[in-house]
Amino acid sequence: MSLSSLPQTISGFTVLPVSYSPKAHHILYIRSHSGPSKKSNDKGKQVWPEGRTLFLVNVPPDATDRELILLFQPTYAVEEEPESSSSSVEDSDSSGDHSDAEHPRKKRKLAKGEKAPAPAPKVTPLLPPTSLRILRKTGRTAHIVFLDASSIARALALPKPSKGQKVPQPRLWPAPDAPLGLAHYTALYDALRPPLDVVRQHADSYMELYDYNAAERKRKLQRESKYRKGEAIVDEDGFTLVTRGGAYGQAVGGGVGVASRKFVSGKTEEAAGGKRKRRKGEKEKAGFYAFQVHEKKRKELMDLKSKWEEDKAKVEKLKSSRKFKPY
Amino acid sequence: MAQDLKRKRANEADARGVKKRQLSEEPDDEIVDHEGDDAESAGASGSGDDEPMDAEEDLGGEDEEWGGIDAVEEVEGKENHRAGGKPKKPPTGEEVRSIKEATELFRSSSFKLQIDALLPNVRPKESRKAPLERFLLALHECILSTPSVPPQHPLEAARALLSPEPAQTPKGKQAKDKGKAKAAPTPVPIAVPYPLPLPTEDANWKVAFEKPSEILLVGSWANQVSVKAKDGLPWGVDIAVEMPSELFQEKDYLNGRFFHKRAFYIAAIARHIASSSKLNVELSYESANGDPRLTNLVLRPKNDDSPNDFTKLHAQVRIIPVLPSSSPIPLSRLAPHRSNFRVHNADSSEDPAHENLPTPLYNTNNTSVCYAETASSSSACPEARDPGLRRCSGTIAYLGEPARLWRGKAAVLEMLAMGEEPADKVNTKLSSKRRPLGKGLSSYQLFKAALDFLARYDFANERIFVKAKDGHRFPAQDYYAHHDVAFVDSPSLVNLLAGVPLSSLAMLQHDAKRTLQTLDSSSPSVDPFTEVFLKENRDLFTRFDAIMHIGLSSATLRHPSIHATLEHGSPAKALFASLDQILRAGLGPRVKALSLLHPSSESRPLTQAHPSTPSTIYVGLVFEPEHAFRLVDHGPAASETESEASQQFRELWGDKAELRRFKDGRIVESVVWDVKTADEKAYIPVMVVKHLLSRHFHIADDAVQSWQPAFDALVRLPESISSVYQSARIPAGFKSAMTAFDDLVKTIKSFDKELPLAVLNVSPISEYLRYTSVFAPVALLPSSASLLPPCGQFLPTMEVVLEFERSARWPDDLAAIQKTKLAFLERIAAALMAAKEGTLARVVVADALNASPIQDQASLEIVIPQGWAFAARIWHDREATLLDRLINEGVNVPKALQADKPRTAREREDALEARELYVRRFVHAPRHHRAVAALCHRFSAFAGTVRLVKRWLAAHWLLRSHVAVEAVEILCAHVFVGGGGSETVPGSKERGFAAVVEFFKDWDWTAGIFVPLYEEKGAAAEAAKSSVVVTAGHKGVWTIATDADKDGHMWTANGPDNIVALRVKAIAKATWDYLQQGTESGALEVKTLLVHPVDDYDFVVQLEPSVLPRYTQNVVADPTAWARKGKFANLQRQDGTPVVRPGFDPAQLFLDDVKRVHADTLRLFYDPIGGDRFGAVWDPSLKQPRPFRVMNHFSSIPVPQESEKAKEKEKALVTVNESAVLSEILRMGAGLVKT
Q1: Which residues contact B72 (CB under 8 A, 6 or more apart)?
Q2: Which of B32, B317, B485, B983 has its CB 3.0 to 4.6 Å from that of B299, i.e. a possible disulfide?
Q3: Which of A30-39, B56-65, B872-881 has the lowest mean pLDDT?
Q4: Could you tell me if B974 and B1064 are in contact, meaning their C-beta atoms sit under 8 angstroms apart?
C-alpha cells in the first residue's frame, strides 16, 4: 500500500509511518495521553502525567525503550526518558498470558517493604540487567513521558509532510541497540543460566525478605487486632469464637481459617442431602404391591421398545449417510 | 419352557422355508425375493393365528419367576393400561419378540439392524434380474443348438478352431453341420486351452462335441447366497454344462486326457456362441486359481439395450463343463493315492518310484469336475433346513470377501476359491468329531460358529470329513498321506482344500481369530460392526508386519520337477506351491501367518490358451512377536548328524546351516543370523525369506524389495553424522541414556548430607527415556563437539522430576516456593559438581516474560561427564493446594472469611495456568511416562510405531506446536491396546504406523476415544465408557480419555483445533492413499510420505540450515550444509572450541516467539525435528477492513477512504499490515532466516 494514500489521522490518532527497510512500513498511532480512564482508577496502575505523555498504539513487538526514545529524539530537544522499560510499555492486555517482568514486581514489593520503619533486606537480582529485548505480543500500546508539554505537540506534528513534499516521509526506525535473531537467542540462553552463587544469593536474599515481610505483616496484624495470641476471642454478647489451630496454629486471633475444607469446597450440603435421601429410599419396598410390579415391567418393556426405536433411528441415519455401501 | 417353544417355532419356520424353497426351485428362473422374508418369517411368524400363544409364551419366557398364569394376567394388565389412555402404548407381544430376538440372538439390537441394513446392499437388485433370466434362457437354447463335432485328433481339432477359415473338416457330415450353423459371420479364432501335458501328434484318442446332456444353474447365484464382489467385479452366475458321457472313455483319467476333452468341449461352445448372432456377448476364458485345467468360459454382456441385455445387473455368466454322474471314468482311479501320470522322460524312467508318485491334486481336480451338480443339490438342503442360514452364509461369504480380496488389482490368495464353500458347510454339516450345531440359531450365531471353527481348526494336522450318510468313499489315511490339508464334504468326492497352501489357511485362521476378537471386544471405542463388515481389511500395510515385493522373472526352482509341474497344472503354480512350502518351513514359528499374494487370474481372450503368469508377487508376513526376532534357528541335534532330519535342515538352509555348541551343552544344527544393532533384529524375518529365496529359487536379493530399511532410515541420523558419533565413541541410544539416568539417580539419592531433605523419587518424564523420541538420544562432550558440524550439535536434554520427602518447613507462599526451589537446585548442583569430576550443573531460570512468579519455572541442567544432559525440576505437592486455594477463593467462602485483599481476575488466570502446568508436569507426565515405557516393553513394535508417527506428524509441520507428543503416544497406544484383541496388535513398526495413519484417516474425533493405557482394564473401561464426554473447546477438539484423565484433554487442551484436526485427517488420507498405490505398483518411496506440500501456506520462510543445531535431523537434510568448507580435511573447525548448549534450538525459540507475538494474526506450522522452513497462514478475517481500535492485537495499517466526508463520519477502518509483519519476522529471525 503506498504511503500517499494513508490518512493523516484516524479516530483521533495521528498516523505515524515508520520504516525499517525501504519496502515495509510499520504504522504507529500516536495521541497525547488524556486523563485517567475509568479503569486506571484501580490501585496499582500508574498515573501518567497529563500533558507530557504521549500515547502510542501498535508498538512494534520487538521495540526497546531505547529505540523508542531514539525514534522521537533526533529532531527535538531534550526529552525525558520514558519510565523504565516494562512499565512504560503498559501491559494493557487483559488476557493475561504475559505478566510483567520480574523487576517491577520486585520493585513493588520493595516499595512495600520500605514503608516499614525497619530497613527491609534487599533482594539480589537473579538476572543481571541485560540489554536483551523483550518480544511482546504485537499491537500493544505504550506511554512516553516527555520533559515538557511542548514536545508533545512537536511529536504529534512529526508526520506532517515537510516543505516541498506532499507525502509524509516515514520516520526511519533507529538502529537496533540490542541483538536480534540468532544472537538474541544465544544471549538469552546464556543469560538464563546465571552463575550458581548468584542463584544462591538471590534465593537467600529473597527468603530473607519473605521472612521479613511475614514478620512485618504479623506485627502489623498484631498491632491492629484487638485480640492477642492465646487469648480467647469473645464478642460483645459474651460468646467465645472457636477457631481452628488454637493458640499455636494461628498467629493472632480472628477467624482466618475457621471454615473446614468441606465447607470451602461446598460439598457438605450435597453430601448430607444425598445421604438423607438414600435413607428414605431404602425404606420403600420395591416389589410389594402388584401394581408396582406391573409398572416396573411395563416400564422395562417401554424402555426396551424405545431403545429399539432409537437404534433403528440411528441405523436409518447411518443408512442415509451411505455408510452401508462398503464398496 | 421358553426354550422348547422357541425350538418348536423354529421348526415351523423350517417347514415353511422348505416349502418356499421347493416352490422357488421349480421355475428355475423365477426368483422369489427373500430379503426381508427371512427376517419376517423368523420375527413375524406369529402374526397369524398363533398370536395369543406366542405372546403368552414370550412373556412367560421373559420373566421366569412369575410363571405362566401371571403372564396371562400380565397381558390383561397391559390391555388395561392401554384402555387407561396412557399416551404411549407398550409394545405388542410381536414387537417384544422381535426385539428380544434381536438383542439376544445377535450381539446387540443395533448390530442386527445394521446387518439388516447392509445385506440389501451386497445382494443383487431384484429389479435388474429379469434381463438376466431372459438371457439365460436364450443361452440355454443356444448351447443346446451347438452343432456336434465328430471325433477327431485333438491337435487337428485345435488347429481347425484356431484358423479363421471355416473348418476344414475331414468328414462330410461335419462340414454340412458346420455349414448350416454358419450362416453367421466368420468365426473368431479360438485357441483350445489344452492343459499340460499337451496332446502329442501320435495321440490315439479323439476329441468331439455333442450337445450337453443337461444345463444347470449352480453355485452361489442359484442358491441366492451370492454377495457383491469387491473392486467392482461383476456378479458371477455359474452354469454347469453336463458333457454327455459318451464322449469319454474309461482311460480318460490318464495324463490329463479328460481335461483335454473338456478343453475342446469348452472351445467348441465358445465357437458357437461367438458365431451365433443371437447373443451379444463378449467371450473370454478364465481359469479358476490360474489352473489351466479348470478353464471356464466367461460371458459378459455388451450394452445393446436388447431385452436380454443384463449389463445393468453388472454380472457375468460362467460356463463350466462338468461330467455326468454316469461317466465311464471309474472314481476309484481318482482316489488320493493313485498316480495318473505316466511321465516318459529319461530321468524318471530310471526311477520307477518317481513315476508312480501319487497325484492327489490332479485327481482332485478331476473329481471336482464331477462335483458341480451334487454340490449344488446338497448345499440346497441345509439351506432349506434352516432359514437363518441363508442370511448367515450371505454374511460369511461377505466376510470371506475381505479375505478373498486381492481379486482385482492387487493379488489373489489361492485359498479364496474355498472362501464360501467349506465355510458355509461347516456350520450345518459337521465333521465326525464336531457335534452338529443346534437348530434355530440366528445368522449371527452361525456366523460366529463358522469363525470359531476357522479360528480353532488345526488345518495342518487334522483332516475334516463332513458327516456323510454312507461313510466316505476313500479311506481317511489316504488323505492324511497325500494331502496337506483336507476338508471332504458329504458327497465325499472332493477335498475342498486340495491345493490350497497351508500358509493361506493360516492367514484365514488369523483373520478369523481377529474378527472373533473384534466381535467379542467390549471396548467402547471399537464399533464391531464397522470393524468387521465395513472396514477394508485387506490393505497390505495394516495386514502384514512385513511385506516383500518379489520379482519372479529370474526365479527357477533348485530342483525342477516335471511331476510337480504336471501335478499343479502349470510351472507357475508349481513354483508358488514350493515357495509356500519352503518359506513356511524356513520361517516356522516366527510368523503367525504368511501369505503369497499374486494378481488374480483374470479372464483372457479366447486366443490365449493358457493363463498368463504373474511376474511379481508379494509375500506378507504376520509376526509372532515372541519368536520373530530370535537370532538362532535350532535344527536337529548333532547326535543324529546323518539322519534325515539334519539332511533336510541342511538342504533347507544351505551353507548357512552349521553345527554349534550351545551354553547348555547341546550340540545342534543351527542357523545364526548376524545383526549389528538391536534395531536390525527386526530385519531377521525378511533376511530369512531373502536367504531362502536366493538359495531355492535363485532370486537375487535385489529382486526382493522390502520397505523396512527405508522406514528405519526415517528415524536415523544421516550416515555422515552417525559415523562421527561412532568413530568418536560418543554414547548414543536409549539403553545408554537410561543407564546414565540410573547413575544420576543413584548419585542424587546419595546426597543425604548435602541436602536438608532427602530425595524420595526421581521420575523421568522425557520421551528420550521411554524409547519414543524420533531420534535416539545422543550425548555430546565439548571435546568431541568440534568433530560435528554446527548444524549437528543438538544435545537433547532429558527432563526428570525430583520429589523430596515432605516437610512442613516449606514457605506457604507460591512465589516463595519457587525461590526455595532455586535454593534446592543450587545445593544439588553444588553437590553434583563436587561428587563427580566433570559434571556440569547449572540452574536455569525461566524467561522473565513467559513465566508468572507463581509458576514452576526453575530447573537444573545437568551435563554428566559422559555428555548426557538432563533437566531436573522439583515437585512440591503443596503448590497444588495453594493454587487451588487461589483459584477457588471467593467462590464458596463468605466475604468475611476471605483473605484481606481480593484477588484480581488476572491473578486467578495466572493461578489457573500455573495449576494446569503443575498438573501436567508433575502429576500426569510421570504417570504417562511409566505407562508408555511399560507399553514399550510389552509390545516390541510400539516404540518404533510411535517414532514413525511422530516423525510423520513432524514432517507435516504438526507435531509439538499443534499435536502434543504425549497425545501421539496415547493414540499410538490405541492401536495396540484399543480393544482390537491380540491379533490386531502390530508386530512391526511399519504396520503400526500404517494402522495409526488409517486410524487418523477414519477418526471421527467428535466422538472422542478411550484408551486403556494404564493397566487396570475391564472395570476401568466400563466406567470410562460413560465418562467420555466430549467437550470440544475451541482450542482442542480431540478427546483422548485414559483411566488417569477422564476428561481426555490433558494433552490436547492446546490443540489441535478444528482446522488442524481436519488437516491431520487430510494428510492421513493422502498418506494412506499413497501407501496403497505405492504397494500396488511396487514403487513406494517411503520418504515421499514425509514430503510436505507447501502450496497451502500464505508464505513460507526458509531458515538458514547451517546454523540450526538440529538440521541434520531434517527429513531431506542436505549434506552440503555441513560439508567441510575448508581445504584440509584434518583442519579443526575455525570457530574455536564450540560451546555445548544442551537443548538449545534457536529455531524453536524463534518460532515460539513468532507464534506468541502474532498469536492473533498468524497460524504457524513447522517441523520441530530439524525443520528448515516454516509456513504460516493469515487469519482470514484480518484481511477484511475492520474499525480501528486501540486493542487490535495485530499490526494494522489504515485503509484509505474513498471520500473525505466518509472519513469523518464513519469509524476509520484498518487492515492487517502484511509487509510490516513479514519484515518483523525477518527482523526477529535475523541470522536464522535465510535472506
Answers
A1: B56
A2: B317
A3: B56-65
A4: no
Q: Please say if the pLDDT value at position B685 is more than 80.
A: yes
B81·A25 Cβ contact <8 A: no
Q: Flag if B820 and A318 touch (Cβ within 8 Å).
A: no
A156 in any annotated domain: yes
The answer to whether position A1 is within a domain reads yes
Chain B partners of A57 at a C-beta cutoff of 8 Å?
Answer: 1190
> Cis omega (within 30 of 0) on the bond before B197?
yes
**Domain tally, chain A:** 1
| pTM of the full structure | 0.80
Angstrom distance (rounded) from CA B571 to CA B581: 15
Could you please state the CATH topology (level 3) that the domain comprising B1094-1229 is classified under: Alpha-Beta Plaits (3.30.70)
Strand order through the sheet with B546-551 = B591-597, B616-623, B546-551, B704-706
Whether B659 has a pLDDT exceeding 50, the answer reads: yes
Q: Do A207 and B822 touch (CB under 8 A)?
A: no
Q: Which of A57, A138, A185 sits opposite B1150 (nearest CB)?
A: A185
> Strand B667-672 relative to strand B658-661: parallel, antiparallel, unpaired?
antiparallel
The reported pLDDT for the residue numbered B951 is 92
Can you give the pLDDT at residue A100?
A: 34
Domain membership of residue A4 (yes or no) is yes
**Would the ipTM clear 0.90, i.e. be above it?**
no
Domain of A137, in residue numbers? 1-36+46-76+119-194
Residue B1180 has pLDDT above 80, yes or no: yes
* B943-1091 shares its CATH topology with B1094-1229: no
CATH number 3.40.50.2000 is the correct assignment for the domain at B545-631+673-714: no
Q: Residue A252 domain-assigned?
A: no
- Reading the block at residue B1023, the C-alpha cell is 466406567
Domain limits, chain B: 123-163+186-329, 367-419+442-537, 545-631+673-714, 723-890+903-938, 943-1091, 1094-1229
- Using a 10 angstrom Cβ sphere, with 0-12 exposed, 13-18 middle and 19 or more buried, the burial of residue A119 is exposed
Residue A132 touches partner B, C-beta closer than 8 Å: no
B121: closest chain A residue by CA:
A325
Cell of A128: 543481571
The CA distance from A325 to the nearest CA of chain B, in Å, is 6
Do B337 and B476 form a contact (C-beta atoms < 8 A)? no
Indicate the pairing of strand B546-551 with strand B704-706: antiparallel
Mean pLDDT of B926-935: 91
With a cut of 80, say whether residue B327 has pLDDT above it: no
Contact (CB<8Å) B892/A263: yes
User: Are B895 and B916 a contacting pair, CB within 8 Å?
Assistant: no
Q: How high does pLDDT run on average in chain B? A: 72
Rounded distance between C-alpha atoms, residue B305 and residue B680, angstroms: 62
**Domain B123-163+186-329 fold:** Beta Polymerase; domain 2 (3.30.460)
Q: What is the pLDDT of residue B61?
A: 35
Average pLDDT over residues B103-118: 76
Summarised one tens digit per residue, pLDDT across range B255-301 is: 777 788 888 888 888 888 887 766 777 888 877 666 777 777 888 88
Residue linked to cell 460392526: B529
Residue type present at position B100? K
A259 touches chain B (CB under 8 A): yes
What's the CA gap between B694 and B774, in Å, rounded? 34
**Could you give the C-alpha distances from B1056 to B544, B1001, B1036, B1180, in angstroms and in order?**
31, 15, 5, 18
Q: Which of B80-94, B597-611, B935-949 has the lowest mean pLDDT?
A: B80-94
Yes or no, beta carbons of B892 and A325 under 8 Å apart: no
